[in-house]
Design brief:
Blueprint lengths: L3 H12 L2 H4 L7 E5 L2 E4 L4 E4 L2 H4 L8 H11 L13 H13 L6 E5 L2 H16 L3 E6 L7 H4 L18 E5 L12 H19 L6 E6 L13 H13 L3 E5 L13 H4 L6 E4 L10 E5 L1 H4 L15 H16 L2 H22 L3 E7 L2 E6 L9 H14 L1 E2 L1 E3 L5 E4 L7 H23 L5
Parallel strand pairs: 3-13, 5-6, 5-7, 7-8, 8-9
Antiparallel strand pairs: 1-2, 2-3, 4-10, 9-10, 11-12, 12-15, 14-15
Helix pairs in contact: 4-12, 5-12, 8-9, 13-15, 14-15
Length: 441
């Protein structure tokens, strides 16, 4: 007789859209706790994905679970503006204390994409300018507005005809630096040239409302730009009175070792989009700007029914409390540095590893063809499957799906990093053996 799980898995392709159900690896689980998932097969899996950089304080942290229960005893739904409630007001206060500069006014929504949509709308509304500049390789979401600035993969834009009111310039790529030249100097000078060319041939700076970018390239491959490159972006925007938007959906809430990447790189944007780790798994996001800027966006210019849900706001408060009490920013810096050191040793043993790219616990492991040096997305999937068989879950990114994302919860310990990387090491060894003996593959 077919059991419940077999029935559900068999029928999933008929009930869920392929764009929702066909991701990797479709692991059936029944429980999550801390840094672990527990599978239908009874096996424990070390989670190095954090639900794609969401559960920064770990799965089902006791304080988070209790916050959900306590909040549900009072309010389950807003809508904000029609009623007002304590959790959304307290959260705005708490976030204003940890955000950089004068980013102290919030429009709460539900997802990262919504936060991006809000940021773009705000910038266009207050500047009265039509155009947006984004960077090739960045991911900002898949709704039509966000998609107009998303260029991590062309398949996301296929048949969509995203808005023609956007222009792209290349993201920092130190790999292109000529021999003998300082990589940071190279990418800064190239950035100046790229903007000068854009402004000379395609759009005048006076028509540009904003520049939007990820301070660390996420879905596009975990590329960490030099600090000076981000400072130069800020300088170019200031020079032309263009607003700067940071998409900190993935880099926020401790992932880079500070509250936000803006602080890690010492560059403050005019507008920020935050989400993912904000409420440790509950849907919540925010478009953030200074009160001076936000007050130019009047009633009716933007709206939401579910944004700033009272339970989600209560959980966000609990999440911030846990991060402070457990010193998770410090743990992120320490464990990130430790993990990179271990990975560099593993890289020496495995020619399929290209580069290790990391800031805090946002770590990318590039998988290459050891003969050509080119991206090896097919091999990466085999490595991930082998690692999963051993008990550790990673995710992927990169234009060719060639980069392993290692983004464990920020509570991760040295022992858990050792265990996970040992399993990855074994998976790499097994995969490389198939390259040497393809007949037995």
């Amino acid at each position: 007789m077919e059991n419940k799980w077999d029935h559900l898995v068999k029928n999933m392709p008929n009930r869920l859209a392929p764009s929702m159900a066909k991701d990797h690896p479709n692991l059936p689980v029944v429980k999550e706790e801390g840094c672990y998932y527990y599978g239908v097969d009874g096996k424990e899996y070390l989670d190095f994905t954090s639900g794609i950089a969401v559960t920064n304080v770990g799965h089902r942290h006791p304080k988070v679970v209790q916050a959900i229960k306590d909040a549900a005893d009072g309010l389950m739904h807003g809508p904000s503006g029609v009623i007002m409630y304590e959790s959304i007001l307290r959260l705005a206060d708490e976030l204003a204390d940890i955000l950089p500069g004068e980013l102290d006014c919030f429009f709460f929504a539900n997802s990262g994409t919504e936060a991006i949509e809000g940021a773009l709308k705000l910038a266009k509304y207050v500047t009265k300018r039509p155009y947006v500049i984004s960077f090739t390789g960045c991911f900002h979401g898949r709704s039509l507005g966000a998609l107009s600035v998303t260029t991590s993969k062309s398949k996301y834009r296929k048949f969509m005809q995203p808005s023609g009111l956007t222009y792209q310039v290349p993201y920092a790529n130190v790999k292109e630096c000529p021999a003998g030249m300082d990589p940071e100097t190279y990418v800064i000078e190239k950035l100046e040239k790229d903007f000068a060319s854009l402004f000379s041939h395609q759009v005048t700076p006076e028509e540009v409302a904003c520049v939007i970018l990820e301070p660390v390239l996420g879905e596009g491959g975990y590329v960490v730009p030099p600090k000076g490159w981000l400072k130069k972006v800020r300088e170019i925007c200031d020079r032309h009175n263009i607003l700067l938007i940071f998409d900190e959906v993935q880099t926020g809430f401790g992932r880079t070792g500070q509250w936000f990447a803006a602080q890690t790189f010492d560059v403050t944007p005019d507008i920020m989009a935050i989400a993912k780790g904000i409420a440790n798994g509950l849907p919540l996001s925010a478009t953030v700007a200074s009160a001076e800027l936000m007050k130019q966006w009047p009633l009716g210019s933007h709206g939401t029914t579910f944004g700033g849900n009272p339970i989600a706001c209560s959980v966000a408060l609990a999440t911030l409390e846990v991060m402070k009490e457990e010193n998770l920013l410090e743990n992120t810096r320490n464990m990130g540095s430790y993990a990179v050191g271990q990975l560099e040793q593993i890289k020496e043993r495995h020619p399929v590893i290209g580069s290790i790219r990391a800031v805090g616990l946002m770590i990318g492991i590039e998988i290459i063809d050891p003969v050509t040096g080119g991206p090896n997305g097919e091999g990466l999937l085999k490595i991930l499957d082998l690692a999963l068989e051993k008990g550790v879950l990673f995710y992927l990114c990169g234009n060719h799906g060639e980069v392993i994302r290692m983004i464990p919860p920020l509570i991760v310990t040295k022992e858990q990093i050792d265990a996970g990387l040992q399993m990855l090491d074994e998976a790499l060894t097994e995969y490389e053996a198939t390259l040497l003996n393809p007949v037995n593959n």
